[in-house]
């Protein structure tokens, strides 16, 4: 399956799309996403060359889950400030995570200019920005 191969080789970027499918509200899409994750787990378990995907999978699943929970949390009313962990239930144990930040610069794919460059071409930017810490503890609410 080509999706599993891409996720195995480029997990920092590919897992965002797969985990979006896993967390879909449509059961059929969820099942497809879970199938891809299960195949990825099986593939990385049997392969020594895909340790990055294997090491990134569980933290990525956790980080996406934390983000979804965070987005569905209602901020407290009648307060000018709130704390990410105490008031908004943000689980700081989800960071650091080596999943690439989902910004265009990190997820854009480049193609080789000539056929001779295919062998040594890297389709994604070499420097990947990841989640290390969250410093913004204070959120102002109008």
Automatic annotation (TrEMBL):
Q: Per its UniProt record, what Pfam families does this chain match?
A: HEAT_ATR
Alphabetical keyword list: Kinase, Transferase
Q: Which domain of life is it from?
A: Eukaryota
For the Serine/threonine-protein kinase ATR-like HEAT repeats domain, which residue ranges apply? 2-47
Comp. bias (Polar residues): 41-53
GO molecular function list: kinase activity
Task: Cite the residue spans of the region called Disordered.
Answer: 30-53
Q: Can the keyword Manganese be found in this entry's annotation? A: no
Please state what the protein is called.
Answer: Protein kinase MEC1
